[in-house]
Write a structure and sequence with these properties.
With 563 residues, the protein is of the alpha+beta class. The protein has helices spanning 148-155, 302-312, 337-352, 370-381, 398-411, 417-436, 445-451, 454-461, 464-469, 489-499, 542-561, and strands at 37-43, 46-57, 61-70, 76-86, 91-100, 103-111, 115-122, 125-132, 138-139, 163-168, 172-187, 192-204, 207-215, 221-226, 231-235, 244-246, 254-259, 264-270, 279-285, 296-297, 300-301, 316-320, 357-367, 387-391, 475-480, 510-514. The chain is globular and about 75 Å long. Residues 1-28 have low confidence and may be disordered.
């Protein structure tokens, strides 16, 4: 949904969190596990590994053990992870044995209230690292997610606004702040799981990194997400195909399943307050990423809220999980923009067959890169789609979009001009290699693995100008003036492309710029992604739905009269 450039421009360490003393004693309501709890690890939406974690009580407190490994972004295998904690989750000792290729890593640490001493053996070299740590730190080595059980115990005692020390063993101590605590509900095939979702800002040397941690009713770890790094760690009972995060619910929401090409699409429909015999319908199409039908980012359920506002305006609204996400079937690793467009068309066809829907008044609303999907779907669906709205959507080719996002990110960095130029050149080489399939020599393997996918190839090959020429429907462009992800200039480009068509619908092209709104369609000061963690308002502006519904109210009447 957001930034697609491959070259890293910020120093990043996998965030570790810790909690200071607050509330009830940590561990007072925590259930141990006799059997291993499996966590599935994904990177940029692709499964890359698992970690099996066992939490047991001991005479002195708690023990967390785990084994497992992952293939990306840095492949390694965990042969042994064993951490001992006191009854109040103060760290006592830690032992790690891991392998990356033929390189062995061994860590053995002991802790006091103020000191961490670690024997490190790596690449045949042995070092003793002794560092001061603050009382109350939770110790989390990079990429060993079993250690986050201690974090879950500590977070269970914290409220929004609490700051605390974080010891990223054996590198450094940093500061974390709980910015929000919100309830979550996840529906599985057999039960509804109540979660608490903690948004945490980690002040790393390079700047803030946002981390999302969810714990369950028994204060056990359920989920870890680092959106900026593309890392998602999800407990196995929450990561099956037939589950989804219930991050937002409108009063009239109903779950449905729609047949697609060899799999089913899981969706939520939101009828208007007073359903009519033949209602107009809207299909919401999300942007890139692994988000589900609610399109929740930084605790803003963009589509969840927008569907409610549009239904209140009299529309039957559909939002759905993309293939391979949430409760939808299909395989996301082989999906392209064209495949996602086919899925959108299937939703349109399903709507057109419903007796309570007017098949001549079905519209598409694409947000972010979902605008690309909506454009392609509208062209393929023909007169089955009456109109489309492109919300904070790119008006350039995918290649130009990626380069523009990289340029913007580099403009915020402190790199020298030579370093910036080198990163741009490397990015251009990567993009050319993705398209041609050749030229990967000298490009780091991890970058090739991240970029060389069917979806990314389809993204950078997409041409908004060529796609717009095939669209016969009226087009609305809605743009948040503060959007720093898809810059406002894209709206001007889309308007020119839509107005320049020879179709009779070209005069029905309209652009609406909404002052002060960012990419998530909420009020913002700068619009930068780094600002998301501190947004005071996390509600989609009602002006978005008013703009879409108002325009459709005019266009659909005109379209209907002309048919």
């Amino acid at each position: 949904m957001f930034v697609h450039f491959i070259v890293a421009i910020l120093f990043f360490i996998t965030p570790a969190l810790a909690a200071g003393p607050a509330g009830a004693p940590a561990g007072s309501r925590i259930a141990q596990s006799a059997e291993p709890v499996v966590f599935n690890i994904s990177y940029r939406g692709t499964p890359v590994g698992q970690e099996s974690v066992v939490l047991t009580r001991t005479d002195t407190g708690w023990k967390v053990s785990s084994t497992g490994g992952q293939t990306a972004p840095s492949p390694f295998t965990i042969d042994k992870f064993e951490a001992q904690y006191s009854r109040t989750w103060q760290p006592l000792s830690l032992e790690i044995e891991a392998r990356s290729g033929d390189q062995l890593l061994s860590l053995r640490s002991t802790f006091t209230a103020t000191t961490a001493s670690t024997d490190v053996m790596q690449g045949g070299q042995k070092n003793l690292v002794t560092q001061p740590i603050s009382s109350g730190s939770v110790v989390l080595p990079n990429n060993f997610f079993g250690a986050y059980e201690a974090l879950a115990a500590r977070l269970s005692t914290l409220q929004a606004g609490a700051s605390f020390p974080v010891y990223v063993l054996p590198q450094a101590e940093v500061i974390g702040t709980v910015t929000a605590v919100t309830p979550q509900r996840i529906q599985t095939t057999d039960r509804l799981i109540e979660l608490r979702h903690y948004s945490v800002a980690i002040r790393n040397p390079a700047g803030l990194v946002n981390v999302e941690v969810a714990i369950d009713e028994q204060n056990r770890l359920a989920r870890i997400a680092v959106p900026a790094a593309g890392i998602l760690v999800l407990r196995s009972d929450l990561s099956g195909v037939m589950k989804r995060d219930v991050t937002y619910r409108n009063d009239r929401d109903q779950q449905v399943f729609i047949n697609s090409l060899g799999f089913t699409i899981a969706a939520t429909v939101t009828p208007p307050p007073s359903p009519a015999p033949r209602m107009p319908a809207i299909v919401l199409i999300a942007g890139a990423g692994s988000g589900d039908r609610d399109e929740t980012v930084a605790n803003v359920p963009v589509f969840g809220q927008l569907s409610g506002d549009l239904s209140n305006a009299g529309y039957f609204v559909v939002r759905y999980d993309k293939r391979g996400i949430g409760q939808s079937g299909g395989r996301p690793e082989s999906a392209t923009i064209a495949d996602y467009a086919d899925d959108a068309v299937k939703v349109v066809e399903w709507l057109s067959k419903r007796s309570d829907i007017d098949p001549r008044r079905i519209s598409l609303v694409g947000h972010s890169e979902g605008g690309y999907v909506a454009m392609l779907a509208a062209a393929r669906a023909g007169d089955k789609v009456a109109a489309i709205a492109l919300v904070n959507a790119p008006g350039t080719s995918g290649r130009d979009l990626v380069l523009a996002q990289q340029q913007h990110a580099l403009s915020l960095s402190s790199d020298s001009e030579d370093v910036k130029a080198a990163k741009i050149q490397l990015q251009q080489r990567i993009l050319s290699a993705v398209v041609s399939g050749t030229g990967w020599e000298g490009i780091p393997p991890q970058m090739q693995k991240q970029a060389d996918t069917l979806w990314f190839k389809s993204l950078i090959e997409f041409d908004a100008a060529a796609a717009m020429k095939k669209i016969k429907q009226p087009v609305l462009i809605v743009q948040g003036e503060k959007d720093a992800v898809i810059a406002a200039a894209n709206a001007d480009k889309l308007e020119a492309l839509a107005a320049g068509r020879k179709e009779k619908s070209a005069p029905q092209t309209r652009k609406i710029v909404l002052p002060g709104l960012n990419h998530l369609l909420v009020p913002a000061t700068t619009g930068e992604v780094s600002e998301y963690v501190s947004l005071p308002i996390r509600t989609v502006s009602p002006d978005v739905a008013k703009s879409i519904a108002g325009w459709l109210g005019t266009v659909l009447v005109t379209t209907r009269q002309g048919q």
